[in-house]
Every structure is written in C-alpha cells, then in structure tokens.
Amino acid sequence: MAKVTDIGPPDFRTMIPPVIAKNYGKWKYHERLRPGLLKHVAESGDALYTVRAASPRLLDIGTVRDLCDLADKYCDGHLRFTSRHNIEFLLVDPDKIEPLVRDVKALGFPVGGTGRCLTNIVHTQGWLHCHTTATDGSGVVKAIMDELFDYFENEKLPAYTRIALACCGNMCGAIHCSDVAIVGTHTRPPTRIDDAHFAAWCEIPTTLASCPTGAISRHPAAKSVRIEAEKCMYCGNCFTVCPALPIADPEHDGVAIFVGGKVSNAKTRPRFSRLAIPWLPNNPPRWPEVVEAVKNIIDVYSRKARRGERMGDWIDRIGWPSFFRVTGIPFTDKHIDDFLGGLSTYRTTTQFKISQKGDHHGQSDHSRDRTENP
Ligand code: SF4
Ligand code: SF4
Questions:
Q1: Cβ of residue 170 lying under 6 Å from some atom of ligand 1
Q2: Are 277 and 257 in contact (CB under 8 A)?
Q3: Distance 224 CA to ligand 2 centre (A)
Q4: Residue 189 Cα, ligand 2 centroid: separation in angstroms?
C-alpha cells in the first residue's frame, strides 16, 4: 500500500457536494437566472444552484469562519472559491437562495459576476507581501472595482469580461489571457548595488544565472557584481535571488495596460493581450490615472462591441488602429514591438497544431521538432 503523505492536494472527490458526486460528468445544461445566480441541471433531473459573491481575496480568519457558517447553514457545509477569488455557495434547495443572498450581502459581500458581468478582479501579492513589486495589487484593484462596481452586479457588458493585475512582469497572476491586464512595470535597471551586504545576502553564481539577458557580471574588487544597463530589461529576476540588487524605484516604476487576451471559448481561439498603454504613474492610494484608463477602455468596449464579443474579438473586428482611435489612447514608439516585431518572435496563441512534414505554418517549435526529427 502506498505511503500516505501530505504532499500534493487532497482528492477533490472527498469534498464535492453529494449532488455533484452523484451526477459527475452527467450535467445537461445550465442557466443564468440573474447576475450571481446559476442553475445547473443534470441528466437525472437534479438541479444545483450557485450563488456567486465577490471576495476581496485577502481574508482574515474571522471572515472565513463567517463564510463557512453560511455554508453550514444553507449548503450542507459546501463552499468553493473560484480562481478569480469569487466565493460560490452551492445549494440544492431553491427556497434557501434568497435567505442566503440576504445573509451574504449582510456580511458585506456583493452578489454578481456571472454572465455578461465584470467578474471579480484577480491580482497578485502587491506591496503587502512581495518584494519585486512595481505597483500594489489590492490597492489598485480596490480603486478600479469601486469605479466599475455597477458592472459586477448588472449584466451591462457585451460579454464576460475579466480584468487582472500583476504587480511586476513576472506575472505570477498569469494575466496575459484577460480582457484587460494591468502590469506593474519597472523602468530602471537595479544599479544601486549594495556592495557592503552582497557577500552576506547573495551568491554570485545564482545571481549571474538569474539574469535572462546576461546583463550581470562579476566585480571581484568589490566582491560583488555589476549590471550592464543597456542589456537590462528591468525584469527584477536578479532581485528575487539577491536582495542587494534593489529594483523598486518610487519615481519611475509605473503601470502598463494590455488588452484583448482570453482563454478559448466556443467561438474563437485563445489569445494573448497586447500593449495598450505603456506606462501610467503609481499614484497611491487611489491610482486615479490607472482607474480612469481602465474605466475608459471598459466603457468604450461596453458601448461599441456587439453582444457576445469579448474585448479581443471586438478589436479583431474593428482593427487595432480603430481601437486606439475610439479609446483615444495614443499609439507610441513603445507599442511597436508588440504590434510588428513581436508578431514574428512571439507565439500569440496557446493552441498547438501538429501538421504534416514541410508545413511549418502556425506550428510550435515542439511540433516542428516532431515533424522534422521523427
Ligand atoms: Fe511578486 Fe511580481 Fe508576482 Fe507581483 S507579479 S507577486 S511582484 S512576482
Ligand atoms: Fe537581468 Fe532582469 Fe536583473 Fe536586469 S532586472 S539585470 S534583466 S535579471
């Protein structure tokens, strides 16, 4: 018998509601009854209702206990968090829906985020936790969501809309497949090197190896390293392994905005987002420039796109020049690689196609290897 360990996630089948276990893989259809309320119907005729509420992502233990109490009261103890920090209460008794919604709202959590609503904004750690940040996570998202809150509670958008924030280019939030992606951006190399502490805090081999562009070299006299600024792309990777190379810069760090990404749906392929605004200032506590820019993009999309069109599908239809024109966003030299050079150097979809030998159009490197070196 295999040894029981605490490595890896527990088996999800031990935690799903009985109605899901009973009808696993046999769901017939679902309906969106109203914003924040879904109904899934199984082939057996069983129905499962989902009430979706937003969470602020960072929850204290008292709040988690309050949410669990509601799950005990209405959902036989079952509750789930979505990948975008929504809380989903799963019920089989439709008579419990309204009392549950009342209790959820009384706790201060809004109900919505399904269908053609703006879903909860996903974000990374920000100043609260991570050392590599170029901007905050929860602070920026709170300021944006306060402005766009109406779109969370009401289905006023052309299609499902996702906004995501990563507080540096490491993008541990995987935001590149969101309709609007907000990225904290460093714009200066980490040249304020703390030679006095380098030997105590850092290792030279790992620091050299951390740089994807080879910009870091040894500096034996100082028992430290030096950075060739022209080669640096401000990724912050070296600071992650070596605290003596601080990259944060309160004046020049800022926020970039990308648009048009999505994972696949039945209509169109998955796609990565592209640069819309290269830099906006960090202006806490309410980031007015970032809020205004995101609101403008969402408002224009909401007015101009056809029903069912995701942000990227809308831009595909009208073309990028028209996107920049109708949103009033200037197209600058900073955009050029993302729209010209980038086309030949980046994969712009996550779809793979294994094609015949000699046909390299649209192939991944992996598929090329397979066709040329069987
Ligand atoms: Fe840290 Fe960057 Fe991830 Fe933000 S995106 S949590 S700064 S690694
Ligand atoms: Fe290299 Fe990135 Fe550090 Fe620049 S910020 S030196 S590119 S690891």
A1: yes
A2: yes
A3: 15
A4: 7
